[in-house]
TrEMBL record:
Ranges for domain Metalloenzyme: 20-544
Protein residues bound to substrate: H140, R170, D171, R206, R213, R286, A287, D288, R289, K361
The keyword Hydrolase is assigned to this record: no
EC number annotated for this UniProt entry: 5.4.2.12
Coiled coil: none
Species in which this protein is naturally found: Dendrobium thyrsiflorum (Pinecone-like raceme dendrobium)
Protein name: phosphoglycerate mutase (2,3-diphosphoglycerate-independent)
Domain BPG-independent PGAM N-terminal positions: 102-322
InterPro entries: Alkaline_phosphatase_core_sf, BPG-indep_PGM_N, Metalloenzyme, PGAM_B_sf, Pgm_bpd_ind
Length: 559
């Protein structure tokens, strides 16, 4: 933005009028897949979404929501809500999380950066602690990055290393934790042969230890703190592989919810508590489940639980997890600089904006949409509403979540006449999909469909335009499959439930009485992705998108 002739003013669209109320609805975790009994969107009664698909073929299409379309390294990388909303809001594709880390590790730049230099000051006398999710799921972290970081840290002077891992079972198969721990143990044994004091210090399941998000349950972080920092946990083992195998034998045990454990020596002492003078790196690249542990590790003033002791450490995240809070203040890899988002452009061009979701996705429809930026661009032009999510239960218990309340807020905002854009995220498909409960996920999809109808009905009343899309897949495929697409079965012959996101494309539908008669999807952007949605929405507000935005998905033909 160095050039002086830069202007926030958007050019008028030659054929589309200004002044229409535009509803932008993001269905979280709503992909498009073959209809079968494990496709909850298919099994659910979703008359509204069905009618969008079958009603007007030139006003419904699929867009890519994974891999390179959202800035991730490969087409094997499933999308997620953060990169998805970044792309939806930014209108351009930025290298993201894992890809940024890959580039920094491959080039060695990570070891020259301020963050690594900072933690390195502890290597001489202290221990380097690595805390994070141990799997190759690629959503929050990746095993190969941890392996490279272990190698690079020792080459750059780390002499004593302790790993505190969290088992996954959410983005990868339940039970795969054992293999990941064996791989890690093997790597650490190799380092010990080279004279490095490297070992596993603690562990626990990601949903029960450390990795809570959105201040849902601080006890999760507390359990991690006790194991990792204080060296205290209800379970003590001398070997981590044995720990995971034993704890998985408990009734109903799974990787996501393994209780915390510490590794102890022959005398029963924890081998790796975090103490004054140590360095700590949280090696997850995805932010949402690292913000809370980062606060506990970094903040002097902290009242969410009693930390017992607060060691004087050098702490860095793999990335900065919250740009607004500047948390953590030290990080190994710098974030993508997402500038000039569609939200900022539209506000500067007079578009009054309303955004709403419930707690679990409120940050997506605001912070991530706006390029990882907290707060308003212009508080006189914008209103963001957060509806509190249910706490203390898993989302399959109340699969309707707050879909209706979100839709009611959107409806009221549309009918108020105070806003030009009304933007919501409806979380059900994703949050309930993650529980693996197929019946509940079907109910979740039905609730989301009812919410969409309420918003579309309001748009019909005010002569507006709607854009209904999604950020990535989840609910449309709830079973693990083999290479030929057949459901995988476990030893007992039961299906292996898929709790993760998918690689599927997502729908985008446009319509409403305010849509110009000749407006329809173009046929010459077949590989369009989420980043193309921003220019499309700008068009509906009567503007052309900036020249470097991914191209619009629509054209206006003269009837």
């Amino acid at each position: 933005m160095g050039s002086s002739n830069f202007s926030w003013k958007l050019a008028d669209h030659p054929k589309l009028p200004k002044g229409k109320t535009v509803a932008v609805v993001v269905l979280d975790g709503w992909g498009e897949a073959n209809p079968d009994e494990y496709n909850c969107i298919h099994t659910a009664k979703t008359p509204t979404m069905d009618s969008l698909k079958t009603g007007a073929p030139e006003k419904w299409r699929l867009v890519r929501a994974h891999g390179t379309a959202v800035g991730l390294p490969t087409e094997d990388d499933m999308g997620n809500s953060e990169v998805g909303h970044n792309a939806l809001g930014a209108g351009r594709i930025f290298a993201q999380g894992a890809k940024l880390v890959d580039l920094a590790l491959a080039s060695g730049k990570i070891y020259e950066g301020e963050g690594f230099q900072y933690i390195k000051e502890s290597f001489d006398k202290g221990t380097l602690h690595l805390i994070g999710l141990l799997s190759d799921g690629g959503v929050h972290s990746r095993l190969d990055q941890l392996q490279l970081l272990l190698k690079g840290a020792t080459e750059h002077g780390a002499k004593r290393i302790r790993v505190h891992f969290l088992t996954d079972g959410r983005d990868v198969l339940d039970g795969s934790s054992v293999g990941f721990v064996e791989t890690l143990e093997n790597d650490l044994a190799n380092l010990r042969e080279k004279g490095i004091d490297a070992q596993i210090a603690s562990g626990g399941g990601r949903m029960y230890v450390t990795m809570d998000r959105y201040e849902n349950d601080w006890d999760v972080v507390k359990r991690g703190w006790y194991a990792q920092v204080l060296g205290e946990a209800p379970h003590k083992f001398q070997n981590a592989v044995e720990a995971v195998k034993e704890l998985r034998k408990e009734p109903k045990a799974n990787d996501q919810y393994l209780p915390p454990f510490v590794i102890v020596d022959e005398s029963g002492e924890a081998v790796g508590p975090i103490v004054d003078g140590d360095a700590v790196v949280t090696f997850n690249f995805r932010a949402d489940r690292m913000v809370m542990p980062a606060k506990a590790l970094e903040y002097e003033n902290f009242d969410k639980f009693d930390r017992i002791r607060f060691p004087k450490i050098r702490y860095a995240g793999m990335l900065q997890y919250d740009g607004e809070l500047k948390l953590p203040s030290h990080y190994l890899v710098s974030p993508p600089e997402i500038d000039r988002t569609s939200g900022q452009y539209l506000v500067k061009n007079g578009i009054r904006t309303f955004a709403c979701s419930e707690t679990v996705k409120f940050g997506h429809v605001t912070f991530f949409w706006n390029g990882n930026r907290s707060g308003y661009f212009d508080s006189t032009m914008e209103e963001y509403v957060e509806i509190p999510s249910d706490v203390g239960i898993t989302f399959n218990v109340q699969p309707k979540m707050k879909a209706l309340e979100i839709a009611e807020k959107a409806r009221d905002a549309i009918l108020s006449g105070k806003f030009d854009q009304v933007r919501v995220n409806i979380p059900n498909g994703d949050m309930v999909g993650h529980t693996g409960d197929i019946e509940a996920t079907t109910v979740a999809c039905e609730a989301a469909d009812v919410a969409v109808k309420m918003i579309i009905d309001a748009i019909e009343q005010v002569g507006g335009i709607y854009v209904v899309t999604a950020d990535h897949g989840n609910a449309e495929d709830m079973v693990k499959r083999n290479k030929s697409g057949k459901p995988l079965l476990d030893k007992e012959g039961k299906i292996q439930v898929l709790t993760s996101h998918t690689l599927q494309p997502v729908p985008i539908a446009i319509g409403g009485p305010g849509l110009s008669p000749g407006a329809r999807f173009r046929s010459d952007v077949p590989s369009g992705g989420l980043a193309n949605v921003a220019a499309t929405v700008m068009n509906f507000h009567g503007f052309e998108a900036p020249g470097d935005y991914e191209t619009t998905l629509i054209e206006v033909v003269d009837n």
